[in-house]
From TrEMBL:
<dbReference type="InterPro" id="IPR043144">
    <property type="entry name" value="Mal/L-sulf/L-lact_DH-like_ah"/>
</dbReference>
<dbReference type="InterPro" id="IPR003767">
    <property type="entry name" value="Malate/L-lactate_DH-like"/>
</dbReference>
<dbReference type="InterPro" id="IPR043143">
    <property type="entry name" value="Mal/L-sulf/L-lact_DH-like_NADP"/>
</dbReference>
<dbReference type="Pfam" id="PF02615">
    <property type="entry name" value="Ldh_2"/>
</dbReference>
<keyword id="KW-0560">Oxidoreductase</keyword>
<dbReference type="InterPro" id="IPR036111">
    <property type="entry name" value="Mal/L-sulfo/L-lacto_DH-like_sf"/>
</dbReference>
<protein>
    <submittedName>
        <fullName>Ldh family oxidoreductase</fullName>
    </submittedName>
</protein>
<comment type="similarity">
    <text>Belongs to the LDH2/MDH2 oxidoreductase family.</text>
</comment>
Length: 338
């Protein structure tokens, strides 16, 4: 096995933040971006870990994200909490809006955070997890840029459009799932390309609309939605709710804005939060107790809950540090000097 260097979560966080500060980001933007990237690396989610740094820096260099943007919250006491990211990263905008979203959700039973005008490159689980840690359920979604063909089509139109859900649990990590509505995240295809590995069949089409297992051809062609027509429809719903409905870009417009898929996409995001106790009206007792019985039934069949792998990886990283390859260490060093 090749040589590996172990960094603590704090050490890696400091290095990643320094890279973004030296690239011109404000403390707020650099901190928020570093937190989500290091969380990905810590939790064994390589497709949204440190591999994403280069793309973010390219996006800053291309002038497509405002590295010192100051997000602003507009809350009019309704259920809609709008956060203007003002051209910055979505992560800083989310962090600013979270306490307001929680307050509105507790007051009204449900509320939604709309993030507008942001660069969004990250996984969604840190966000639904943060809402769930406040005792609320959450559903988050966003478009991406046009890289996925609708089922029955052959050309990119949809984004990889992720959707995540979080449910709070009193004595355990929250129940969280988070996935792209394409067969896999685009980052996964890129990681296959870098490793020189063929893709499994059914993930992508080449530029002629023919099935391919070549990552290079897939990146130039179109990815495919998960679950055939069902994933295609869910992905379309995300374009509608987290694109058109929130007054922001849909995936084809996001691609036109950048003109390339080598930069991080620019669009908006929708995060809906629910207060389960208020919704239940306590008609059948405490909804969290009902939920626990259901989770037990899942585990009782030998199935695992989504995020269990991730939480195990997190425990290991917190206890033993994060092991990075020599190439990854060299990359961190190089990016600090860019
Ligand atoms: P995966 O297919 O790797 O995982 C999807 C989810 O399924 C995870 O919650 C995972 O939990 C769970 N899971 C996997 N295997 C099982 C199993 N056997 N039993 C139960 N649960 C399981 O994710 P994707 O490749 O689709 O997406 C990866 C990331 O990419 C996501 O975090 C997403 O937000 C991000 N993304 C971001 C985009 C953006 O525009 N910002 C666009 C597209 C994707 P576990 O982690 O524990 O394995
Ligand atoms: O991995 O599909 C992806 C992705 C797109 C934007 C951010 N991540």
């Amino acid at each position: 096995m090749s040589e590996r260097t172990v960094l603590s979560v704090a050490e890696l966080s400091a290095r990643v933040k320094e890279i973004f500060v030296s690239a011109g980001c404000s403390e707020r933007q650099a901190g928020a971006v570093a937190r989500v990237i290091v969380a990905g690396e810590r939790d064994g989610c390589k497709s949204h870990g440190i591999y994403r740094i280069e793309g973010c820096l390219r996006t800053i260099g291309a002038g497509k994200v405002v590295p010192d943007a100051v997000p602003a919250v507009i809350s009019d006491e309704s259920a809609i909490v709008r956060v203007h990211a003002n051209g910055g990263f979505a992560n800083a905008a989310f962090e600013l809006g979270l306490p307001v979203l929680a307050e509105r959700t507790r007051a009204l039973g449900m509320a939604a955070m709309v993030v507008n005008n942001c660069t969004h490159f990250s996984a969604l689980w840190p966000e639904v997890e943060a809402v769930a840690e406040l005792g609320l359920a959450a559903l988050a979604m966003c478009p991406s840029y046009a890289t996925v063909a609708p089922t029955g089509g052959r050309k990119p139109l949809l984004g990889t459009n992720p959707m995540a859900f979080g449910w709070p649990r009193e004595n355990d990590h929250p129940y969280v799932f988070d996935f792209a509505t394409s067969m896999v995240a685009r980052g996964e295809i890129e990681l296959h390309r870098r490793a020189g590995k063929a893709l499994p069949e059914g993930w992508a089409l080449d530029q002629n609309g023919e099935p391919t297992t070549d990552p290079e051809a897939a990146l130039a062609g179109a990815m495919l939605p998960f679950g055939g027509h069902k994933g295609s429809a869910i992905s379309t719903m995300i374009e509608l709710l987290a694109g058109a409905m929130i007054g922001d870009l849909m995936s084809p417009e996001a691609l036109a804005f950048l003109g390339t898929t080598t930069l991080s996409p620019h669009h908006g995001e929708l995060i809906i939060a629910f207060d389960p106790v208020r919704f239940s009206g306590q008609r059948r007792g405490n909804p969290f107790i009902q939920a626990e019985s259901f989770f037990e039934a899942i585990a009782g069949q030998g199935a695992r809950l989504p995020s269990q792998r991730r939480f195990r990886a997190r425990s290991q990283s917190l206890a033993q540090g994060i092991a990075l390859s020599a190439a990854e260490m060299a990359q961190l060093q190089r990016l600090l000097q860019v």
